[in-house]
Amino acid sequence: MKLTYIFLLALICFGTKQVSAQTLPYKNSKLSIDERVADLLGRMTVEEKVGQLSKLLGWEMYEKNGKNISASPKLKDAVKTQHIGMLWATLRADPWTQKTLLNGLSPQEAAKATNAIQRYMIDSTRLGIPLLLSEEAPHGHMAIGATVFPTAIGQASTWNPFLIEKMASAIAKETFAVGGKNGYGPVLDLARDPRWSRTEESYGEDPYLIGRMGEAMVKGFQGKTIGEENKIISTLKHFVAYGVPEGGHNGGAVSVGERALMQHYLPPFEKAVKAGAGSVMTAYNSIDGIPCSANEWLLTQVLRNQWGFKGFVVSDLLSISGLNGSHATAENAADAASQSIHAGLDVDLSGSGFNTNLLEAVKTGLVDQAVLDRAVVRVLHMKFSLGLFDKPYVDEQAVVKKVATAEHSQLARQVALESIVLLKNENNVLPLSKSLKRIAVIGPNADNVYNQLGDYTAPQEDGKVKTVLEGIKAAVSKQTVVDYVKGCAIRDTTATDIAAAVRAANQAEVVVVVLGGSSARDFKTSYQATGAANVDAASQAISDMESGEGFDRSTLDLMGDQLALLKALKATGKPIVLVTIKGRPLNLNWADEHVSAILDAWYPGQEGGLAIADVLFGAYNPAGRLPISFPRSIGQLPVYYNHNKPNHHDYIELRAKPLYAFGYGLSYTTFDYSDLQIDLNESATDLTATISFQVKNTGDYGGDEVAQLYLVDEVSSVVTPVKQLKRFERKFIKKGESQRFSFEINLEDLKLWGIDKQWKVENGKFKVLVGPASDNVKLTSEFEVKI
């Protein structure tokens, strides 16, 4: 009898436990997210709370044994000892992670890996909290098999936010399909010194253009509501002013005043935050002596209180440790953790900045429990919003229909097409005839897959990436002979063969030479803990890499024997078409003076070779515009177009103006601007200026025109820029036809950060400048504010 009673009691208790486990409030999808978060938070230990704020490096968290993919012992140990809440770059593959096509993951394997990881979290941990997986995704998911789009500097050259939103949506779909729920990007840093190694990751030098592109990326990534199918949250980088380091040194100190910060560096982030961005990453640098990862004014007062940001803030890799390291503003690691979390930084990318240090800070009273809970609530709220608790797994069978589709390849080609900038076309050398008898294709970037893709790119299967040589061969007739000679490398001068290149050129009717730079990481390069490359100027092993994170420049000259090759080809007397593939503006002074035609393709992605050929042979009329100015010399730097008044005067040696200005780009056709009209609608408290004008295609080809509107505040209480982009639009105009452009300007576009440190619009005249580039004004007028 006694044994029967004990058995029944045990059965009742077991049954009660099962029912309880199934009906815990935080697992009840019918409750509000706030209710679920509150319930879960109340069940967590301090150790589990701290663990939720740790985002570890993810590529060692799975094991691949043949067809079997499982959670690795390293993951299990991290979960057991740190109670981790997030992983970063789990599916990343590149020389830094040492993941290759052989030991990395195909898209289908990636889905299996993330499911295995989530299954372990759900089934083998006390509370079953799923992980949030963050992935690099600035120009495609940085994983094997994903579509590779042009890098950000090329995306910005499209001046087409609607196309970039479509691209971001495709990237989100591919990332979501394999288990990623958070994409790192866009980078919203103003790049005003092209010596900086990460210029390629930026949208250029102008806050308005950057803001429009950033907003487009956020909308494409996230959709209308966080948690939508095939969507991921966006992480904005790097908050803030990271892109203007002194001397161009990546991660170095910056010198930015409060007014410049408010007027130029913060607005792109504000626009993206108000578009709904789910996450923001702090920058490595300091602002006026305060590291961004411990800046309460930046992370709480501005980001949350003023802009209404609702997501979570994540550190850049190891930046919390930088407080008691390189910055030396914290006494020890616990102090660094305390400074960061009090400032409003929620998540530690590395797992070493918070972890035991934050635990120590909480247990010793350095960090109050409420401060810890605040950060944990932000993370949990995002996980619930993303649907991770209700749908932690992905459909492994659906991956093939979502990743690297023909539709995405075509989209990559379209972005590449719209990003190409025609810098010069003397005597209409371009477009070339497809019936040329012989073409010489020469140069280190003419047939190099990885040099075409930029940094943050995974290994690629053979045949996936279309090079310029392949594009040209596909574009011309079968009767055309295409000769290819590499000629030289980007940097290495030990295998130069200019003589062979000259022989090929002498036999050709036209020479297409493809030069520039490279951000192609290799397995010979050593890397810092942050992932940036170590640069050794005395190293005997010379890769092509001269751009990409860590590869800062002291000059912008073409490296190696590239200029010597170009000069030798010019000496043949044959028409030369120069195509540049690169991540930053380079010195093209000699080319601009001596070469017939120049196309700038930046890093055009996997379909770039086909896109370049389309432009070369007239299948597409280029209309890309520069998002960053090209200096004539590094002695001009900084040379961005919207510098503060007064206007620059010339140097003794050269002009003050850049070689190619912001907004510049040519077409195979011509456009005329006319009929500028301003309709001013002004009340006692508001103003709208509708500015419209006519653009006619007066040339021989249909094509896009990118009309740009700049404003000049003629008299102001503080110094303002010599001009500032306020609106732009890219429109296709048929040959002989006209299109009317119309832009609305409001008070938000006219405000300045006043002497009293308040935003205001001042009465007075504003000059209107309209044209196809910042230095090519076709129409001018003005209006006056009287509020």
UniProtKB/TrEMBL annotation:
Annotated Fibronectin type III-like domain residues: 705-774
UniProt cross-references to Gene3D superfamilies, sorted A to Z: Glycoside hydrolase family 3 C-terminal domain, Glycoside hydrolase, family 3, N-terminal domain, Immunoglobulins
Annotated signal peptide: 1-21
Pfam families, per database record: Fn3-like (PF14310), Glyco_hydro_3 (PF00933), Glyco_hydro_3_C (PF01915)
Gene Ontology MF annotations: beta-glucosidase activity
GO biological process: glucan catabolic process
Keyword Hydrolase attached: yes
Assigned keywords, A-Z: Glycosidase, Hydrolase, Signal
InterPro entries, sorted: Cellulose_Degrad_GH3, Fn3-like, GH, Glyco_hydro_3_AS, Glyco_hydro_3_C, Glyco_hydro_3_C_sf, Glyco_hydro_3_N, Glyco_hydro_3_N_sf
PANTHER family, sorted: BETA-XYLOSIDASE, PERIPLASMIC BETA-GLUCOSIDASE-RELATED
Protein family according to the UniProt entry: Belongs to the glycosyl hydrolase 3 family.
Name of the protein in its database record: Beta-glucosidase
Organism: Sphingobacterium hungaricum
